[in-house]
Amino acid sequence: MIHFDEKERLFRIDAKDVSYVFFAAANGRLRHLYWGPQLDTMDLRNLGIADYTCSPNFNPDDNEAGRGAYSWEFAGNDIGTRGVPTAIVRNADGNTTTDPRYVSHRIYAGKPRLEGLPATFVDSPEECETLEITMLDEATKVEFLLRYTAFRDLPIIARSVVVTNKGDAPVELQKIMSLTTDFRHQEFDVIYFDGYWGKERTYHRERVQGGLKIMGADSGYTSHRMNSSVILCDPTTTEEFGRAYGVLFVYSGKFAVEVDQCCMYRTRLNLGIHPMGFTWHLEPGESFQSPEALQAFSNEGLGALSRSWHDLIRQHIINPRWRTAPRPILCNNWEAMHFNFSREKLVTLAKTAKAHGIEMLVLDDGWFGKRDNDQTGLGDWYTNTTKVGCTMGELADEIRSLGLKFGLWFEPEMVSEDSDLYRAHPDWAIQVPNRSSKTFWRYQYMLDFSRKEVVDYVYEMIIKVIDEAKLDYMKWDANREMTEVGSYGWPAERQGEIAHRFMLGVYDLYQRLVNRYPNMLIEGCSSGGGRFDAGILYYSPQIWTSDNSDAFNRLAIQYGTSFAYPCSSMGAHVARNWFAERYSPVETRAAVAFSGTFGYELDLNQMPPEELAQVDGQVEFYHKYHHLVEQGDYYRLANPFKDETVSWMHVAKDKSEFLLTVVFTRWDASYSGENILLRGLDLDAKYTDGTKTWTGRVLTYAGISVKPSRFGDMLSIVIHGTRV
Ligand code: GLA
């Protein structure tokens, strides 16, 4: 999979259907050549691709004058390689010139785990091959170890960098991108997903313009504001046709995707930890491991790119324990009760849930410390027995005796000012030492998870509750951004490390819990879907997609999320109608939630009887067909940002079954239905929905006629077809 031409010092990395090519120039700098459909040659330099330059004085043997137009695989800093750099190291002399050159490489089967960080993994070494390139900045003796892993079954390459100070004086790493790649002479569109609370991962597509555009988040977590998945594609690329280049970060802290286009249409794409506020002090002998960045290519449009990401996340990121295991249908009490619950209310809800086939009750916020509202109690992870009416063990036993599993909400990284924990350890909050102001956000601070003793303390508190209640499920929430970043636990020269060290603490706690409770399902959450990323998915196979459960808004949120993340990772629940002015029938709310992990987030006992009566059918439908959502291929058939009829499909990998969902968002007086062209089917097979039979060819090219069964907005139909 990974080829090396010794004479040309050229590397060709072949993942499934894709080649990625670069070489070490005579002076040792790494120059990028190609990323695209798989090639059958190593002879790229003779094709002239490598030697393009904007300088009329270009001489390939000189010191690369005019190299601003070269394509770089690793862009040094302050060495004439124009464009935003891959790495910046401030060396002992005080300058930031960074110029690593190729020293050696090795190629081996398999892939190492990244110490303390989430990363892709394989079940057996044959599934991938890894290239490690060692580069050294001779003047500063800083070494860069570049890792590339190519997956045999997916058009995806995983990358990371280890920076080691091999010199005898300390240096400061000021920027390290996990991935740099340059494109030559391409007009690009960039697709990114921004948003805010209740409107996560809003799809945007625009033409790349000259200059530097940074899509990222600098406040300590992935954030609602921008997701760490970005796509570059040809302006002509559609769902089904054209080239698309995607990147994805296996990380949950602050990140930046830099797209930098120069006037020669050389476009650079960088992905890594956001350099703003980041520094890492490296004493002689010390190393820094960057998080992992992934790059995927599709020659068949955005749909195929997404399906590659979905397969990667399901096969190589989420814990194999949950790879094929159906997730329990849960009922979460938050929107039913908020902080106003009692044992009796919970048991009544649980009984109704059980009567309709729901499998798990989740008690959300408010069960611990002095937590009667969102202003108090975070950090005090002991049961408020007065409020709960018994111990957590007793409540859990009672719920379980009804035949349900039981789960609890936590917000481990946070502390309320009004809490026993904060009163005892005010210095355990993230804050800038000796500066009195710190931003209050939902009445809480972030705990300083850069300090091991803080993580240890929270771990010990949490496991007492989990052990006592024998939890089947934990909802791990995180409801604020990181501001005034600093720590009393670290010296001055390490204050720039706190945001990343905090994430290492979060991952450490996650890993300890996963190790101790291999069968406890953890669902990530962050004020809805504010920390939806491939890093969290490594520990939590599902993440609450948004607090906004309005079915209409969810069409857009789940659409945007689907570009990188599989439906099996998207927490989606049937809720009450969110806005009085917008009614969605319960069957549509269920149809939309069905393309996620599925559950209920409302007071079942308050549901109109005709709606509650439908729950049994929804549960039955889930058990019959949810394997298609969890393991099938996903096809977006419409774009909710422009189409009034929104549809999508889940198709079994062997094409033997499909599920088509159509939501008619707006009623139109003269609407008489439409033909929807299906995707992903076996053209030569016949499919039936139990009443009609079509060939795959007809469904694909002529389409299936659909129309709502009555007048109204937000109506839907779901069609299940099987191969005859
Ligand atoms: C966040 C979550 C919600 C709920 C509340 C509880 O907003 O996104 O689902 O858990 O916190 O306070």
What is the overall shape? Answer: globular
Helix content estimate = 10-25%
The total count of helices amounts to 13
N-to-C terminal Cα separation, in Å? 39 Å
CATH topology of the largest domain: Beta-galactosidase, Chain A, domain 5
CATH 2nd-level architecture of the largest domain: Distorted Sandwich
CATH class of the largest domain: Mainly Beta
What fraction of residues sit in β-strands? 25-35%
CATH superfamily of the largest domain: alpha-galactosidase from lactobacil brevis
Average predicted confidence as pLDDT: 94
By helix and strand content, what is the structural category? Answer: alpha+beta
Q: What small-molecule ligands were found?
A: alpha-D-galactopyranose
Quick overview:
Helices cover 20% and strands 31% of the residues.
Task: Fill in the keyword field for this structure.
Beta-galactosidase, Chain A, domain 5; 3 domains; Immunoglobulin-like; 9-stranded parallel β-sheet; globular; alpha+beta; 724 residues; 20% helix; binds alpha-D-galactopyranose; TIM Barrel
